[in-house]
Amino acid sequence: MTDQPAIERQRLDVDIVCVGFGPAPAGFRATLSKPSVNARCLAWLAVFLLFFIAGPAGRADEKKAGPVTAVLGALPVEIEMLESKLQDKQTEKHLNVTFYTGTLNGRKVVLAVGGVGKVNAAMTATLLLDHFQPAEILFTGVAGGLNPDLAPGDIVLGEKTAQHDRGELTSAGFSPQPTGEGIPLFMTPPERLLALAETASSEAGFDKIKTTRGERLPRVVRGVIVTGDIFVASSAKTAELRNMFKADAVEMEGAAVAQVCWRQNVPCLVIRCVSDKADTMAREDFGHFLNAAAANSAKLTLSMLKLLANSK
User: In sequence order, which ranges of 133-263 are alpha helices (DSSP H)?
Assistant: First the structure.
């Protein structure tokens, strides 16, 4: 005859208890046979782990919710105005590069000083894209003017950017080349960013530039910006770059950032305010106009951020 009390003792109303986790919530209470307790413990453990794994990911998604505009500069002076106006400012550091996040003119932003030169600029742009997934990158800063119609204080919007020191050097001379198969020599931003910058220029409130002929307001033009790992202070090199690329301005970072963004299909616009004429007086003029040029480039960027915040 079957021992009915013994069978009953094998089927108990139990609370699932897993070591270290305590009792399960009410929805997990069930009448279980002893062999099924371990299975239910595993199920409860899976729910517990899923909660704690998904929790941080959810918080990260919340942190990055909404479009973010990244703003890069090569020198601290090129972003210090933007950083000073940053609301809800927070700081992150990745591979010894400091990033500032917050809000500017209603737009979520991340700011960084990338350092001088193409390698520094490309590294910082890559970190930005990887950690912050911006909707677009704006590069703000100063440049040497190559177009004789431009003077210190004028702003060039990079309708095209190219690396002027990447190519082939033979006995016949230097020939510029793209940086890889399928990569164009000239990088071009989307028309919407160029148009947005032109609209923003009318509301930027630029500082007047002091010259020997008095004060003048900056001009804002579309143009060709060329990039290389040299500071150009040579009338002969200025003429060469003007002739070879029809370039309007020369600097040391923009095209490298544009190429990184091109590879990742992220819009990028290079904004450069002329600080010198890239001639024999370049060093002297650079020191004289640096602060004013950096400030006006930043003001245009601020005005663009306001329009981006109000756009759909």
Answer: 191-201, 235-245, 254-263
